[in-house]
């Protein structure tokens, strides 16, 4: 059976960075800023039968979004970048690959070297 997963990120730069690392088709959705619980429901409605992953920056705005997602969608799995990198878009490819691999995503092997 095909695994159906969605990753929620803050912006387009985060999406592009993850797309480079992933070696499988994964829907990556951008919040593009502030969202409300209603907007979260709206964003996730088409993906009810998917595993939802939240991958936000390790900064105040990312933590605020993460808290909102934890309340509105507690089933979501949370991925964390290391605080030293702060943002998903500035996290080294190798670190992103390791984070994704830990959740059994397929990643391009060159990012693990």
UniProtKB/TrEMBL annotation:
Residues 6-72 form the Toprim domain. Pfam families: Toprim. Gene3D superfamilies: 3.40.1360.10. This is Toprim domain-containing protein.
